[in-house]
Design brief:
Blueprint lengths: L1 H4 L8 E8 L2 H10 L2 H8 L4 H10 L5 H13 L6 H8 L3 H14 L1 H12 L7 E2 L5 E2 L9 H28 L8 E6 L2 E7 L3 H19 L9 E6 L6 E2 L3
Helix pairs in contact: 2-3, 2-8, 2-9, 4-5, 6-7, 8-9, 9-10
Amino acid sequence: NKDIKNLFTVEEGNVLMEVDYSQAELRTIAYLSGDEYMKSVYQKGSDLHDEVAKEFFGPDFTDEQRTFVKSINFGIPYGISAYSLADDLDIPEAEAQQYIDEWFAEKPKVKEFIEEYKAKPARGEILETPLGRKRRFGAITSKNKWLVEREAINFPVQSVASDMTLLSAVRLNPKLDGLAKIVNLVHDSIVIEVPEENLMEVAELTKKTMEETPEIYLDDLDVPFTADVEVGQSWGKLEELAI
């Protein structure tokens, strides 16, 4: 909520900086699934939303169509149904199913990854992330099956994205001594209060640290994790900083 975020301000002479991983969950899915399409998009420095929008609507897609695609990109990998997607996008259910089918047709290993993780709880398997976090599920019933399956897919993806942020903060904090201070962590972003004169130094240091962290901790990583920087006087009014 931007109204709440606007309550977080800084002292005069300082700025608030938020550095977050770009499409962290989707990059994590590309890494965990090994899907060639998704990996190639990120390896060449492209944007998944743009690439899928081109597939669906051609190279001259509109901003509205890109926003439409974002809902699909973020929903489908977590097992969103045609019914839910149709409701979210206000389109017929048959059309939503067509989008889902087209999406997976280009990304078959993502579908394999999803089906594998959906099946693990029913087999009584313990889920484990690349960094060793584990999750166990209890009894599965007809009422909770759908929720358990979604959580099983969500668990490794959200965990990796979050752990990369936590590890980045651990690595970054001593480097910021005397330059700036970390004031918050929000899933896949680090929020820092920094004196204006240290702005570029801290921005470059934070971005570099966050982008290096996955390379250090994720084995055989072949998907780049990039970080974006935004700055402003309040948390709710940040603007992109080009680096």
